[in-house]
Specification:
By secondary structure, this protein is of the alpha+beta class. The chain folds into two domains: 3-55; 59-182, Nuclear Transport Factor 2, Chain: A (Roll). The chain contains five helices and six strands. It has helices at 10-30, 33-55, 59-75, 79-83, 97-111; strands at 86-91, 114-127, 132-142, 148-159, 165-173, 181-182. Strands 1, 2, 3, 4, 5 and 6 form a six-stranded mixed sheet that branches. A hairpin with a 4-residue loop joins strand 2 (114-127) and strand 3. Helix 1 packs antiparallel against helix 2 (33-55). The longest helix has 23 residues, at 33-55. It is elongated and about 70 Å long. The protein starts with 9 loop residues before the first helix and ends in a 5-residue tail after the last strand.
Length: 187
């Protein structure tokens, strides 16, 4: 419910900055000591907000960190590390985790995938209490085929018994018509 308190959102920092600047301008005009105390209080609020962000990682931040870790594993062609973040209950177009793993390994080697990156990450569904999150992002990577792979992806994550967020399902979408689900040959 109050996860925004722990996420270090830029909008909160901007809001606090604007309030602080407004109070400084008022102090400059009026030279009232109470306004300096108010500026100090806003500064302390910003510091407290920063400390809350550092102390606790929210489910949203955990999922985002997992996605970035997976992209890094793809860049290093470390399939073992990549699939630590894939649920044993994973399914992709009728394939289980083991079969999908072999196809991913083959695709990484065949296409020489490198420089994988995540763009435009957004959360579509969040039910942290039930341990389910769905995210959508644009996955991009360079290949040895002299073209860049750019695919909109939608991923369902579940929180498993050990508290880790793992990918349960993935859907790829047509890069031109991003609402049309796409079957990637070889996967």
């Amino acid at each position: 419910m109050f996860d925004w308190l722990f996420e270090g959102r830029l909008s909160v920092y901007v809001f606090l900055l604007l309030i602080g600047c407004l109070l400084l301008v008022l102090w400059w005009q009026q030279r009232d000591r109470r306004l300096i105390y108010a500026v100090s209080a806003v500064g302390l609020a910003a510091l407290l907000y920063f400390l809350l962000d550092v102390v606790r990682q929210t489910p949203r931040e955990q999922v985002e960190a997992t996605i970035r870790e997976m992209a890094d594993a793809v860049n290093k062609h470390d399939v073992d590390r990549l699939f630590r973040h894939v649920s044993d209950n994973f399914k992709y177009r009728g394939r289980d985790k083991k079969e999908f793993r072999e196809r991913v390994r083959s695709a990484l080697d065949t296409y020489g995938v490198k420089n994988a990156r995540i763009k435009n990450l957004r959360f579509l569904k969040e039910d942290a209490a039930a341990g389910q999150v769905t995210v959508r992002f644009d996955g991009k990577a360079d290949t040895n085929q002299e073209w860049t792979l750019a695919l909109p992806c939608e991923v369902d994550f579940i929180r498993e018994g050990d508290g880790q967020w793992r990918m349960k399902a993935i859907r790829f979408y047509n890069p031109v018509r991003s609402e049309e689900e796409w079957d990637i040959p070889g996967l």
